[in-house]
Amino acid sequence: MTPAGTLVTTHRIRGPLAKPRASRSLDTAAEAMPVHPARRGRGSLTNASGRFESEVRVAENDGWDLPEDVNPLRTVVTPERAKTIITRNESPDISFDRSINPYRGCEHGCVYCFARPTHAYLGLSPGLDFETRLVSKVNAAALLERELSAPGYQPKTIAIGSNTDPYQPIERTEKIMRDVLGVLSRANHPVGIVTKSALVLRDLDLLVPMAAKGLVKVALSITTLDPGLARKMEPRAGSPERRLDAMRRLSEAGVPTVVMVAPIIPAINDAEIEAILTRAHAMGAREAGYVMLRLPLEVRDLFAEWLMAHYPDKLRHVLSLVRSVRGGKLYDATFGKRMSGAGPYAWMVGRRFEAAAARLGLAKSRMPLRSDLFLRPARQGEQLQLL
């Protein structure tokens, strides 16, 4: 159902969609758009076409002002048989060169998620589609076992959760992450996990033995301690208290834990840096990191719409501060700058983070995981050759 006062029209265009609105006009454009009511449990307010589509959906004021309910959107999961599962990267500003994403899209619905634009490659919207039309890589564990068994494979830490959350709600039934973790456990392969979900505790039976061998650590991303703000920004992620409790239980079980203050959003959650680090340290975190808000491609429009709906009085101020750390733009993908930004505001955030981490004894350097225990899985047919 279309929200009250809104008419959605479809326009056919030639070629890929134009780039998102220029950053300097985004403030005005967002203020002029109808304010779409939030759907319960969803972060995005709209479902604009991806940039590769031949049609664009535009919401316009229809002149009516009638109260209408906004229908909830059901999550749809499509199985996919992937061709490969370990993704490689050569980015110089991140600490890993390989990762696994068990799912495409993420039901947590974090409005700021930098992975949203990847849904455009599926012909879907980075908006509501990203959090409701998900893809499950059902053969992930089998592929991983095959790729680890390759004769030339050299083990190094695999990152899981760097793109979409492996413990998002559908993992309760899909169990792709658990199967992947089982393969890594049997192979004594190092893994670093990032999540916003207490569902990670389900896999303590695998994580604890791996931790005892120096093979795993878990980072909990805590964006805010305010449950109201968390519900608006990341509606289906675990509450801040549940994430902190998961950190405590992991730490008590001997699993090394990290707190990620990510992303830091100017004028929204930046005042909480010290408080988040203090609480996380008390729960057992011994490493910490942060990432400045990233707004690539379609995310900038989705985030501006979210600001207009929830914090209209802060919209221009927030976007102005974002531009101040991105060289006057809303995003700068330059290696070395994209994670922390540049300029006076970014410098101030960095120094606050460093001072709080040093005071609490949170390590600057990352704890290395072991790769010398790796046991290459047997390739199909190898067992028969031994008989």
TrEMBL record:
- Show the SMART domains listed in the entry: Elp3
- Keyword Transmembrane tagged: no
User: What ranges does the record give for the region Disordered, renumbered to this chain?
Assistant: 1-29
Q: Which domain of life is it from?
A: Bacteria
Which Pfam families does the entry link to?
Radical_SAM (PF04055)
Which ranges carry the Elp3/MiaA/NifB-like radical SAM core domain?
Answer: 96-321
Which UniProt key words apply to this protein? Iron, Iron-sulfur, Metal-binding
Q: Which GO terms describe its molecular function?
A: catalytic activity; iron-sulfur cluster binding; metal ion binding
Classification via SUPFAM superfamilies: Radical SAM enzymes (SSF102114)
Q: What is the protein named?
A: Radical SAM protein
Question: Which source organism does the UniProt entry give?
Answer: Methylocella tundrae
